């Protein structure tokens, strides 16, 4: 695992996880490690804590997350969507951070409503740990090793 | 290859490619086939043709593309960004179609400016055919086999 993480370009970057289920967070954290994600995951359990983290990072010049993994039902989908809108309304460069929605819901109105509010992609949460690990391997391969992300800490 | 494409959920879906270089389009088309992309790629060479395609699909009830691959310099980056804004201003459900930017440029202001205008992700074009194939394999794995896309043809 060390060899893999050492070669990744985004080693040490922050990733913000907004997730109200502690169980899901533990699963995600362990799956990220097993998948060789080179990022430092920061967990917040509710929308207000997410906004606080982003606002404090902006105010204090702390490194912003390169990506946000967002649960939808926090605990209602309206809470998740409100947070999405609040994040998009924060000062630059926060609105350009890609937001990946991760939800147990595969309801088509949840999916469409989330794309309509500016998410980058929507992923349905897997049901077992091996699938979580596989999901993070694909996220790593796509977002860490393939995509060009905005340089948040020099362009504002 | 047939076995792979037969099992993909989005087999037969349309993918819109906006690309003013015919050479790049030929490379992309061949790489998509080699990577087992199960989509039908529709090529347009300029912003106006892209808008015409989307408007005609809306007006005539033709299947909308599940994703848009967009070149940035068409021929200037302002043309690419204007097209991005024009697509986002079209009637529902067009604005929720994920837009993947594909450009030879790795300039950080091109990357940031594109995220600021609502792209889903930014990819730097590879320099050889094998890398193009590998890129489309990763795009297939992420967007076709992992992400939940909005159902464009029933939610409007």
TrEMBL record, chains A, B:
Modified residues (4-aspartylphosphate): 71
Taxonomic superkingdom: Bacteria
Entry-linked PROSITE patterns: RESPONSE_REGULATORY (PS50110)
Domain Response regulatory stretches: 14-140
Coiled-coil region list: none
GO terms under biological process: phosphorelay signal transduction system
Pfam family, one: Response_reg
SUPFAM superfamilies reported for this sequence: CheY-like
Protein's UniProt name: Response regulator
């Amino acid at each position: 695992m060390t060899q893999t993480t050492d070669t990744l370009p985004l080693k040490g970057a922050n990733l913000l996880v907004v997730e109200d289920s502690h169980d899901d967070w533990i699963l995600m954290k362990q799956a990220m490690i097993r998948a060789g994600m080179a990022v430092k995951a920061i967990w917040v359990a509710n929308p207000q804590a997410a906004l606080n983290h982003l606002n404090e990072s902006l105010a204090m010049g702390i490194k912003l997350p390169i990506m946000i993994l967002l649960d939808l039902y926090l605990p209602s989908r309206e809470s998740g969507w409100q947070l999405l809108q609040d994040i998009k309304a924060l000062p630059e460069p926060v609105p350009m951070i890609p937001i990946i929605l991760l939800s147990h819901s595969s309801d088509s109105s949840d999916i469409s409503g989330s794309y309509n509010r500016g998410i980058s992609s929507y992923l349905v949460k897997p049901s077992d740990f091996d699938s979580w690990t596989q999901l993070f391997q694909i996220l790593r391969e796509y977002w860490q090793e393939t995509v060009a992300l905005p340089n948040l800490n020099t362009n504002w």
